[in-house]
Amino acid sequence: MADLPFHDKDDFEDADRGFIAKLSPAVIQAADGRVIWDNDSYDFLQGECPPTAHPSLWRQGQLCARQGLYEVAEGVYQVRGLDLSNMTLVEGERGVLVIDPLISTECAAAALRLYREHRGDRPVTGVVYTHSHADHFGGVRGVTGGGVPILAPEGFMEHAVSENVYAGPAMARRAVYMYGPALPRSPEGQIGCGLGMTTSTGTVSLIPPTTEVTRTGQEETVDGIRMVFQLTPGTEAPAEMNFLFPDRRALCLAENATHNQHNILTLRGAMVRDARAWARYLNEAVTLFADRADVAFASHHWPTWGRGGIVRFLEQQRDMYAYLHDQTLRLLNKGLTGPEIAEAMHMPPELEQAWHTHGYYGSVSHNVKAVYQRYLGWFDGNPAHLWEHPPRESAVRYVDCLGGGSAVVTFARRYIEENDLRFAAQLLNHAVFADEGNKEARDLLAEVYTRLGHGAENAVWRNFYLMGALELSDGIVPATTDVTSLDLLAALSVEQIFDSLAIRVDGPRAWHERLSIDWYLTDLGERYRTTLSNGALIQQRQPADENADLTLRLTKDQLVGLLAGKGVGSVEREGDTGALQRLVAVLDRPAPDFAIVTA
Ligand SMILES: [Zn+2]
């Protein structure tokens, strides 16, 4: 910690540069009065770092908690600190182009209002989605009702929803740990998530793009604003793009280069990202754009000004992802496993001395395990790990071997005294999993998690630890299930809708059920057959015959409604209507409140 470059204040200068005005108070409400964003609750961060936080993370929190309207370049503005992400506004001939309208419509509308107060009542003449994550499109209906050009990278619609479709409920539950919405915002509690402060909780919307960017070098003009694109698929998102405003000499880096080490694998769970591709696209961005930009900005954090600064920033970000990727592979080819590589990996000194490579959101530790996972998967090759007991069964046996729950607590205290909190957590986790009623173990584990959280440089690690402590003491905080807006559901492909049904089939309950249903989608003119056999719901597009047990004629909207549990009131049916009831009868529901720190 002594080596941290606290003398380097450039980020504070850049974060404040171009400041015009704040939103005051920075509290945004939904139509029903519910507070969905409150940036003022982070004011405490402007004080000195307390012993309950890592100084590096506290510093990042101070930077991310800055809020307001900023001028980035002539005619280019950002609203920062009114959601997890930034909204960027570029002035055109008639109005203003909006890049990435935040998560919630309420936040996006507030951001646009703040901009207009200071730059005039310009109409929104276009929208750009930099990539397929919800913090970059969800608020779109807060800035436009549509009818304007909306640009997005190729594959945007498919990926905008697909990342959250199949494992969505589990991700939502784990996101409660990742972002810590239930934690108090205080020096002891949630102090941000590294990428920003937290996620807003308003209305999520989606308007499909009107123009897809399909190749690097593609140029588009909206409202007289010229843009030159670089497609970067498979980086921070499966569909993502950087782009230059050549007339403003301003470069948008989407979320490919931000002021932290990003996630190769986000801890709420996701598919592993490709660090190798990420590094290559950053290198290409330098080649394509460095000579044509005076400022580079992204949809999180603050911009970087000047050619030298931009190139250094991009090259260091590039080297960081390349190093993580290549060194993990070098070490795994020598036989090291994920946890071993995580301990062995040390980042190059130049990168360590640059704040923006620090792991506030991603971390070296979990990113190298992600690279390992991408190439080799969960199994490390050791047969001892091939057929282990699951956590609770293991815990019961460990606790038995160690002489019972109280003995485990005594052992744990010894490791706490030696400041080996990591092993103390392992021991106490066994004690709690073996016997949830072991209050002494629970309390001590909550204390250990709290200390681990307070010591973490990574904001997400801090939130995970503190949420673990909170749930051990106060019980489970369920994920808010109401995350599926109709806009998002409508964006699902028919295939994804049937996939979503298939993964809700309770296998054993459906073992002996056999049925087939044809779904004729009247608005698409397409027929899909779903067949249930052996507990598996199989889908087939355009089946050759019409021999299903039941045929339903409906629109895609009605199908979506059915998925959302609205029943099939007015749908035209032909055949055995009991088939649908039998299918519905074997559908299971996800659990938004599954246990994580208890068995
Ligand atoms: Zn984002």
Please name the defining characteristics of this protein.
alpha+beta; eight-stranded mixed β-sheet; six-stranded mixed β-sheet; 19 helices; 21 strands; binds zinc ion
Commentary on this structure:
By secondary structure, the chain is of the alpha+beta class. The chain is built from 19 helices and 21 strands. It has helices spanning 10-16, 55-64, 105-119, 156-165, 168-179, 275-289, 307-332, 338-344, 349-352, 364-376, 391-401, 405-417, 421-434, 439-455, 459-474, 486-490, 494-502, 556-563, 578-585, and strands at residues 19-21, 27-29, 35-38, 68-73, 76-80, 87-91, 96-99, 124-128, 150-153, 211-213, 219-222, 225-231, 241-245, 250-252, 295-297, 304-305, 515-521, 526-533, 536-541, 550-554, 572-575. The strands form four sheets. Strands 1-4-5-6-7-8-9-10 form an eight-stranded mixed beta sheet, with helices on one face. Helix 6 (275-289) runs antiparallel to helix 7 (307-332). The longest helix is centred in the middle third of the chain and has 26 residues, at 307-332. The two termini are 36 Å apart. The model has no long low-confidence stretch (mean pLDDT 96). The structure holds zinc ion (ZN). Residues 85, 133, 135-136, 255, 299-300 line the site of zinc ion.
Give the topology, please.
Blueprint: H1 10-16, E1 19-21, E2 27-29, E3 35-38, H2 55-64, E4 68-73, E5 76-80, E6 87-91, E7 96-99, H3 105-119, E8 124-128, E9 150-153, H4 156-165, H5 168-179, E10 211-213, E11 219-222, E12 225-231, E13 241-245, E14 250-252, H6 275-289, E15 295-297, E16 304-305, H7 307-332, H8 338-344, H9 349-352, H10 364-376, H11 391-401, H12 405-417, H13 421-434, H14 439-455, H15 459-474, H16 486-490, H17 494-502, E17 515-521, E18 526-533, E19 536-541, E20 550-554, H18 556-563, E21 572-575, H19 578-585
Helix pairs in contact: 5-15, 6-7, 7-10, 8-10, 11-13, 12-13, 12-14, 13-14, 14-15, 17-18
Bound molecules: zinc ion.
Zinc ion is lined by residues 85, 133, 135-136, 255, 299-300.
